[in-house]
């Protein structure tokens, strides 16, 4: 059976790299996002690379009325369903401090919107008894840090959700992978200055495929982020709250 990948946030740099990789494997792709012109171009590229089918679908994590269209397109494909979530937004913390209303969109983009769609998809995944979910979070979700704690809170919530979904769907043979990248060379981090342990979208995608093959539950990419975040999580709170990391 041909795999069908629902790709949420399909216009992001990492999502495009992931789309190219599964298209070359002959999968069908449902490209879901806000920018239809970009999605249509991505669909044409995916088809040229060998995708069995490439369907652009309007999706906005802040507008639940767009969710049914994604699900219907996926079910109509007739393939084995999989889903990869690349949705997220990260306003500067200073902008959120000035306008707390920005919190709503950040949480919807990075947590509640994708979680709601996955919850709609879960019964279909459980019924087919196989497939995979790839949820892209962030190392920022491992501990609330001064510079991006609202974004970190959203990604922490999404990681906890994925953990529960993994517990649920794993009983039916569906694998759920939580991905925690550090800084990736994408538009999201432009303007933040030099970042430690920077990686590329292509490297993240290669790590995702390796983690899927090995049935890993959580992936830190680059790998160095696992020991780094382990140390950060162990710093006592009285000390941590005085630090500027």
Structure description:
With 245 residues, this protein is an alpha/beta fold. It has a single domain (3-240), classed as 3-Layer(aba) Sandwich (Rossmann fold), CATH 3.40.50.720. The chain has 9 helices and 7 strands. A 7-stranded parallel sheet has the order 3-2-1-4-5-6-7, sandwiched between helices. Strand 5 (132-136), helix 6 and strand 6 form a beta-alpha-beta unit. Helix 1 runs parallel beside helix 2 (36-48) and helix 1 (13-24) packs across helix 7. The longest helix has 27 residues, at 102-128.
The assigned CATH architecture is 3-Layer(aba) Sandwich
CATH superfamily: NAD(P)-binding Rossmann-like Domain
Assess the beta-strand content as a share of residues: 15-25%
- First and last CA, distance: 47 Å
Q: Kindly provide the name of the CATH class.
A: Alpha Beta
**Structural class based on helices, strands and sheet pairing:** alpha/beta
GO molecular function: oxidoreductase activity
Protein name: Short-chain dehydrogenase
Organism: Thalassorhabdomicrobium marinisediminis
Keywords: Oxidoreductase
């Amino acid at each position: 059976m041909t795999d069908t990948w629902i790709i949420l946030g399909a216009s992001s740099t990492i999502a495009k790299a992931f789309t190219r990789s599964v298209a070359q494997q002959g999968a069908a792709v449902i490209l879901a996002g806000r920018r239809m012109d970009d999605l249509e171009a991505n669909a044409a590229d995916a088809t040229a690379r060998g995708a069995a089918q490439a369907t652009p679908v309007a999706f906005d994590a802040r507008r639940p009325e767009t969710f049914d269209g994604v699900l219907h397109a996926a079910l109509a494909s007739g393939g084995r369903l999989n889903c990869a979530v690349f949705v997220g937004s990260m306003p500067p913390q200073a902008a959120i401090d000035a306008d707390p209303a920005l919190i709503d969109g950040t949480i919807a983009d990075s947590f509640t919107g994708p979680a709601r769609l996955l919850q709609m998809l879960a019964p279909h995944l459980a019924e087919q008894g196989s497939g995979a979910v790839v949820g892209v979070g962030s190392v920022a979700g491992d501990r609330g840090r001064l510079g991006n704690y609202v974004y970190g809170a959203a990604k922490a919530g999404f990681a906890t959700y994925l953990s529960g979904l993994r517990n649920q769907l794993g009983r039916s043979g569906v694998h759920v992978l939580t991905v925690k990248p550090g800084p990736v060379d994408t538009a999201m981090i432009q303007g933040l200055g030099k970042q430690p342990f920077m990686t590329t979208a292509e490297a993240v995608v290669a790590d995702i495929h390796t983690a899927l093959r090995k049935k890993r539950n959580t992936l830190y990419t680059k790998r160095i982020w696992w020991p780094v975040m382990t140390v950060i999580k162990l710093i006592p709170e009285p000390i941590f709250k005085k630090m500027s990391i």
